[in-house]
Amino acid sequence: MTYLLAKYTLLFLLAAVLGFVLGWWFSRRNIEDVTESFEDMRKANARSDEQNWERLWGQLRAIPEPKETDLTAVYARLDGVMTAMSRLPKPEPVNLQPVVDNLRKLENDVKSIPVPATPAPVDFSPLTGKIDALQVAVRGIPTPEPQREVDFQPIEHRLKAIETEVGSLGKRLERSANVERTPRREPREAPRKVSREEPRILKAALYGKKDNLRLIKGVGPKLENLLNENGVYYFWQVAEWNNQDIEIIDERLDVFKGRIDRDNWVSQANRLRRDPEAARMPTDL
């Protein structure tokens, strides 16, 4: 507000000066005595300035004076805090005399411990003689011939295969117990006669590094993890599936049912198992 008033005042003054200059220029140009006209104009400008100043001071006087902030509530709260603090009980001094007495007693007990006399030197010569005799006896033991390394890999593979078959047998028994409650799907076609009732399911990748099943069209990372969880790790496992195997695995694929036939996994696996980097089917299965 003060800035606007100062601005208006400056404009009025500039207008007065401009009027004075224009009057002087006009009088010089017409070569007339315009003293009286100038005097009249000056008085008019003075009256105008006085009116402007009166208006300005009137506007300034109309500005309300700032009210004093009422801090009574704050002072009352502070008085309440001071009163509450004055009512707090003073802490009682801690009596450390029992602790000091116990420390002094402990110090006296430590000082009363008798200092042992200088112990007699211990004769280690009998022990040294026995150690020397033992060392001579150990040196006299003939060095055994190095034992040939035994390859337990075939046995380990057979044991793991047996463990896998036992696990599959448990699953078959469990499935046969629940066969009345579980509806079976109609086979797509007559299954081939095979000597086994289930696809080869492994507990882990027991026959070398597992194959990259994502090379099969339609198998992504999630589906590959699902196949691994169901014991399928190699192309040769998929390649030997028959219709009955496909039905069993398809039931375990959750939302991916139907992918095996739709994307023809068996044919793809037959082609991929011939790759030099693919795992080979063990001969003991």
Shape field = flat
What pattern of helices and strands is seen along the backbone? HHHHHHHHHHH
User: N- to C-terminal separation?
Assistant: 100 Å
Largest sheet properties: none
Radius of gyration: 55 Å
Could you list the spans in which at least 5 consecutive residues all have pLDDT below 50? 182-195
What is the β-strand count? 0
Helix content range: 55-70%
Helix-and-strand structural type: mainly alpha
What percent of residues are in strands?
under 5%
Question: What average pLDDT do the residues reach?
Answer: 78
> Can you count the helices?
11
What does this structure look like?
The structure is a single chain. The protein has 11 helices and no strands. It starts with a helix and ends in a 13-residue tail after the last helix. Among the domains are: 2-57; 159-180 and 193-272, no CATH class. Helix 1 (2-30) runs antiparallel to helix 2. It is mainly alpha-helical and 285 residues long. The longest helix has 29 residues, at 2-30.
Brief description of this entry?
58% of the residues lie in helices and 0% in strands. By secondary structure, the protein is mostly helical.
